[in-house]
Design a protein that fits this description.
seven-stranded mixed beta sheet; two-stranded antiparallel ribbon; alpha+beta; 165 residues
Length: 165
């Protein structure tokens, strides 16, 4: 008789644990929408015949810690054309990006410590996990909507300046 009672208690406890786990698992599937938070302003410049000209100004979010750098623009549906995300790395070195969980195409602009454009990965495809490397060492990476670098006629050697808020 005791075995039956103990078995019943064990089954009840197991059932309660199973119920709690599945309830917790369902709560973890809820995803909060990620929205833009202005954290600074960035200007892009070009130099022609020793004359520096402003190309455009952007409102930027800044990714400067491991979590923000790994997440970037993932899980977002779109971004307005006057916005971007600036990644700031602790060191200048070759970097590589991919588009895992990124839902819209991007231009990925690699920038060195002197704030000069090193290279551009144009029209990176959504959800593509292929490596998109810089052509040289970069300290910063700017992500903007695809095709904007062509619209701006951005090229290697152009520069940026930015301020944090």
């Amino acid at each position: 008789m005791r075995r039956i009672i103990y078995s019943g208690i064990i089954i009840c406890i197991a059932f309660q644990l199973f119920s709690c786990k599945s309830e917790t698992k369902n709560n973890q599937n809820l995803v909060k929408e990620v929205t833009f938070t202005k954290e600074g302003e960035l200007s892009l410049f070009t130099v022609n015949d020793s004359i520096t000209s402003l190309i455009t100004k952007l409102d930027i979010e800044i990714a400067d810690d491991d979590y923000q750098i790994q997440t970037g623009l993932m899980y977002r549906k779109s971004m307005q054309p006057d916005r971007g995300m600036l990644f700031i790395f602790p060191d200048e070195s070759p970097h590589s990006f991919y588009m895992k969980n990124t839902e819209f195409p991007l231009d990925i602009i690699f920038i060195d410590a002197k704030q000069k454009v090193v290279s551009i990965q144009k029209n990176a495809r959504p959800f593509d996990e292929r490596s998109l490397p810089s052509d040289g060492p970069a300290k910063f990476v700017l992500e903007v909507n695809a095709k904007l670098s062509d619209t701006w006629q951005l090229k290697k050697g152009d520069s940026i300046s930015f301020t944090k808020m």
